[in-house]
Amino acid sequence: MAERAVPQENTGINTGIQQSNDPYPEATAESLDLEDSHQQGACGYDLCPGPSSSCMTTKELQQHWRAVKHRLKPVKLLFEIPSARTIVQHLSKYVVYQIVVIRSGSYDSKRVSVERRYSDFVHLHQQLLEDFSEELEEVILPRKLLTGNFNPENIWERRLALRDYLAQLYAVRCVRHSRHFLDFFTEPEQRRAHGLLRAGQFGPAVALLETVLELQEKMGGWQSPVLLVPTLCALTVCQRDLEEPESAFTMGQRALPTVRRYGLKRYRGPLLEMMVDLGYQLGQPVAQLQEELVQVRDAERGLVSFRSLKELVVQEFT
Membrane-spanning residues where (predicted)? Predict the structure, then answer.
């Protein structure tokens, strides 16, 4: 087994995550470029901060360099809006548009989609204008219709116009780096999933979280794995409570290397604790995990209050 060097606190990422309630405090614009890794962004961002090699085992270092090679491949996102449907609820009536996100540059076999209303596009546009008004001078949001909103022909035309609008946004580097752009595709599902998790409805929560995970992987998780950690931890909790320890352990295994590598102190102790418990259930060797957990807890003693992974997860998106 590869020998691990002593972890360094400064890993190139701000480890202030411990004090933040934001589940994605490190998922900044610098780490979201899908096409031009290791270049200085057009908006002045230093893209793709890398982890410290001193924190990585030989296996993790190999995985890191494979990921670096993958980043150099030309990858773009394509957006399709193949359908729309009208929803009637009590006194309200509105149209939702199905958005399919496709990653080009390699075969994308996983079809993942979300539904958004026109008002969601309006909210996104307003947020982006606050930060990138100059860059978006020539990007026009399809206009609001005063009449005929539910006319099939108008819905068809707006569907095409919104598809082109997303493509224009993605073509602006600063926009596709932005947190607002990523949140447009993932945050509503994240909030619903965490609401279901808090209500003990773990099955429906898993379905939504899996959609979020697929989108995050398409939109930058393969390049900025920190994005995936909160979602992987939420899936670990849900699958543990669904009495699916194998699936829960697998999700935890996916999250733990990134938590170590980027010094995500907020998650490390709680995740290790759950991994040890799951490992015992599955008959997995856990001595190394236990030793690491003891070291983490000793280092945290007197500095922070200990919380379980579930307690950490349920507080997100509140």
Answer: none
Closest CA to 144 of 154, 134, 156, 136: 154
The 3-state secondary structure of 272-295 reads: HHHHHHHHHHHCCCCHHHHHHHHH
pTM for the complete prediction?
0.77
Going by C-beta distance under 8 Å and a sequence separation of 6 or more, which residues neighbour residue 234?
193, 194, 197, 205, 209, 313, 316
Contact 196, 204 (CB under 8 A): yes
List, for residues 50-109, the tens digit of each pLDDT value.
555 555 567 666 666 666 555 545 568 999 999 999 999 888 999 999 999 998 866 677
Q: What is the pLDDT of residues 22-54, one digit of tens each?
A: 565 444 434 444 344 433 333 433 334 455 555
Query: What token pair was written down for 209?
Result: 């979280």
CB atoms within 10 A of CB 148: 10
